[in-house]
Amino acid sequence: MSGHGAAQPMTSAPCGALTGVAEVPGDKSISHRALILGALAVGRTQVTGLLEGQDVLDTAAAMRAFGATVDRTGPGAWTVQGVGVGGFREPEQVIDCGNSGTGVRLIMGAMATSPITATFTGDASLRKRPMGRVTDPLALFGARAWGRAGGRLPMTVVGAADPVPVHYVVPVPSAQVKSAVLLAGLNAPGQTVVIEREATRDHSERMLRCFGAALTVEDAPEGRVITLTGQPELQPQTVAVPRDPSSAAFPVCAALVVPGSEVLVPGVSRNPTRDGLYVTLLEMGADIAFENPREEGGEPVADMRVRFTGALKGVEVPPERAPSMIDEYPILSVVAAFAEGATVMRGVRELRVKESDRIAAMADGLRACGVTVEYGPDTMVVRGRGAQGVPGGATVAVHLDHRIAMSFLVLGMAAQAAVTVDDAGPVATSFPVFGPLMTGLGADLRAG
Ligand code: S3P
Predict the structure, then answer these.
(1) Which of 327, 364, 378, 401 is catalytic?
(2) Which atom of ligand 1 is nearest to the CA of 176?
(3) pLDDT tens for residues 176-217?
(4) Backbone dihedral angles phi then psi of residue 225, each to the nearest 5 degrees
(5) What is the DSSP letter of 392?
(6) Pocket of ligand 1 (CB under 6 A)
């Protein structure tokens, strides 16, 4: 919901070794998709391990508004009684997607090829983010959209009454745009083709197939060519949501910078389209073991064991890796601050249109904590302080961005002086148990 309450400052003080088992919540991307595809199937989908963060709860409320019956039956256990492809009813109220770009963009796609009208809004962060990247391709199906200047929310989308299938080359590396087009293609007759030049997270493709859609993926010279046959009858599924690698990143990276730590994070998705942070950490010299690899709910999963070694070195992160770690640059920048030498991140312009301008937010916060950072439109360089340590001792503005808040709380755990974030409230969007989970491992987190 967009009504973000009073700011909730939180302080993270330097702490002793972090030890124990970190059971991080379900994957946010997969949770959104399970609810949306459940709502578009005919019959009852059961979901376990659903992330009960505010972003996903807002998507659940939206699916109810479009006519699905969505119930919580236990912790992380939800059922969705779907209305079928093309079965969405017109919502009576404005759809409030809160802080969630994924929620609003995927839902716009899912409704854009039905003859209904919906108005979308969100919190102050979401209302700044560009929606044209989604409404442009949706217009090719025949949908129309009116929003504020620059394609900003609030925005009204009038779904196409007679949608036509689309052939679309995604101009930015974005799983949200790809997924919006695929979801719109569900209710268009014939074949919708989406081409992405750079592979982005493929949860939509995997899950559409699980629900019975005819979808093929081909690696061609122009990129990944995804072909979806429209107007399938989606079959309800049982979806087991794996734990979120983007949330696992926080206890993993905390253990890498707090001396003496050893943490086990079980059951984390190891989907290769989400793996870039872990590839980078291994290159930096991190001690991370992936134990007990297996498949759960159509996704590769492993238990991650991470040990502090203290010998991390800065690396160059190549631009082609960006889509597979796009949400992890904030926490990588924190690890980079503790490493020896510079970490150079290239091809990161998409960070500027996330929940905040993450390049500016990280640079400002790191500088306030005594770390040298340089950046340009598409690059960021963090000069690691290595043996000198990170001073910390600052109050950092998080700009309604959960990952900026969690990153600086991790920095405070290993800095020379405590770090305060001006508002930890947004953490509840993706990782509602971050505070108790990190405190249980040994972190010193306090309100205020
Ligand atoms: C997501 C895609 C990414 C990511 C977001 C979740 C998704 O956004 O940053 O947190 O679930 O599809 P973009 O597709 O805009 O890069």
Answers:
(1) 327
(2) 14
(3) 999 999 999 999 999 999 999 999 999 999 999 999 999 999
(4) -100, 115
(5) B
(6) 29, 102, 174-176, 179, 201, 326-327, 350
